[in-house]
Structure formats: C-alpha cells, structure tokens
C-alpha cells in the first residue's frame, strides 16, 4: 500500500521507522547546486478534490536561508523547510535543510533533518538520534509538488539479490547508504525512470498556498 502522508508527526515517524532510504552523505556537491525559487513559499497537504487552505492543516514552509548577519543576503541554492502542524491543540514543528539537484533531466530533493519535535529535555534516547539524508524525486506541475521517496524494500531486495552494488551498511531493520555524492548520483540516474523504485514508497503531494 502506498504510504501517502498527510500528518506532520506521521512524516517524522516514518523517517525514523525506516520507511525511506537513508544516506549518510548528501546527494549533492556544491557544484551541483543552482539558484532557484522552485519551492519558495507555503505549501500544504490535501487529498480532496477541492483544495482550500484552512488553519490547522499541515504547512510546509520553504525559504532560502540568510548567509549574512544583517539578514539581507540569502542562499538561493538551498532551502530551510519548516513543517508546522497541530497535535492535541499544540503546535508542532520540525526543520529540514533541503537542496535541489537535477539529474538525468529530473529534479531530486535532498532532505537533512536539522531540528525535530521534542520537549526540550535531553535523554539517553536523544543522543542516539543522528540526522541523515533522504532522497526524493520531485515532480512540479503549476502549483502542485509531488515528492516521492525511494522504496527501502525495493532497495533491500536489489541488494539481497546482488543486483546492485552500492556502498552501504545494513542490519535487520535499516539500510544506510554510505556512498559519497558521485556514487549516489550514479545510483539515482540509473533508476530515475524506474516506477518500481518509487512504487509503494513514501509519497507527499503539496499544493501552494494562494
């Protein structure tokens, strides 16, 4: 069953539960990045035919980060993504660093978790959370974004059957890609048009706030 996510806390839970492919290194190098405003603005999730923006819905806010102390110059090659939602009447938010890469004529997003929801208390479990990168295919159509992550079960099967060679570490629950950007890009390029690579994976459809 395709995992379509419409709740912020559900997205974070899926990231930590192994429903996406994790990478230790990013998909990009500095030379791969380019100035753009493809994602800039507020977006929200809605699976209904009639799209409306209502208070309380999950909001994805993409903005270019400032690169100077005076907050006058931005880095137009990267984004800070802030996810807002409400849980039990309280606002919950998390922050990602996001970069766009274009490979084989397709856009891909590199997500890196910067801050995640917590109650401010440091516990033993907190020190075991290590931010990693996830890679998703991006399709843009007018004011709609379709974001699809690679299916980890598909990748696990390829590795198990020796049909792919890519640097990685694995245990019974997770596969962590340890390939560096150049090798990751070869992997992405090879399977850019593979429907099986994304089928049954995490998928999010976002609508721009007008």
Can you write the helix and strand succession as a string?
EHEEEEEEEEHEEHHE
Based on DSSP secondary structure assignment, what is the total number of beta strands? 12
Strand content: 35-45%
- Assign the structural class, choosing from mainly alpha, mainly beta, alpha/beta, alpha+beta, or little secondary structure: alpha+beta
Total of helices: 4
Between the first and last Cα atoms, what is the distance in angstroms? 31 Å
Which percent bin holds the helix content?
Answer: 10-25%
Categorize the overall geometry.
globular
Uncertain segments are 1-12, 48-56
Count structural domains.
1
- Mean pLDDT, as a whole number? 82
What would you say this structure looks like, in words?
This protein has helices at residues 8-17, 152-160, 181-190, 195-198, and strands at 3-4, 22-23, 41-45, 59-63, 79-87, 90-103, 106-115, 133-141, 144-149, 168-170, 175-177, 202-208. By secondary structure, the protein is α+β, with helices and mostly antiparallel strands. It has an eight-stranded antiparallel β-barrel with strand order 3-4-5-6-7-8-9-12. Keywords: Membrane, Transmembrane, Transmembrane helix. The chain crosses the membrane at residues 7-28.
């Amino acid at each position: 069953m395709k995992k379509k996510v419409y709740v912020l806390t559900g997205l974070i839970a899926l990231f930590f539960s192994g429903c996406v492919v994790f990478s230790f290194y990013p998909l990009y190098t500095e030379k791969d990045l380019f100035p753009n405003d493809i994602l800039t603005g507020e977006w929200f999730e809605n699976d209904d035919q009639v799209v409306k923006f209502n208070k309380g819905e999950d909001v994805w806010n993409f903005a270019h980060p400032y690169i100077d102390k005076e907050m006058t110059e931005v880095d137009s090659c990267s984004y800070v993504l802030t996810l807002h939602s409400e849980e039990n009447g309280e606002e919950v938010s998390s922050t990602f660093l996001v970069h766009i890469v274009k490979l084989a004529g397709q856009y891909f997003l590199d997500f890196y978790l910067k801050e995640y929801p917590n109650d401010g208390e440091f516990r033993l479990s907190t020190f075991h959370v290590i931010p990693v990168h996830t890679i998703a295919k991006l399709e843009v159509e007018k004011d709609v974004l379709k974001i699809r992550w690679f299916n980890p079960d598909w990748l696990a099967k390829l590795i198990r059957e020796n049909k792919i060679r890519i640097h990685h570490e694995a245990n019974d629950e997770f596969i962590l890609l340890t390939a560096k950007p150049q090798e990751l890009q070869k992997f992405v390029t090879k399977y850019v048009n593979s429907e099986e690579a994304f089928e049954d994976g995490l998928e999010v459809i976002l609508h721009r706030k007008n």
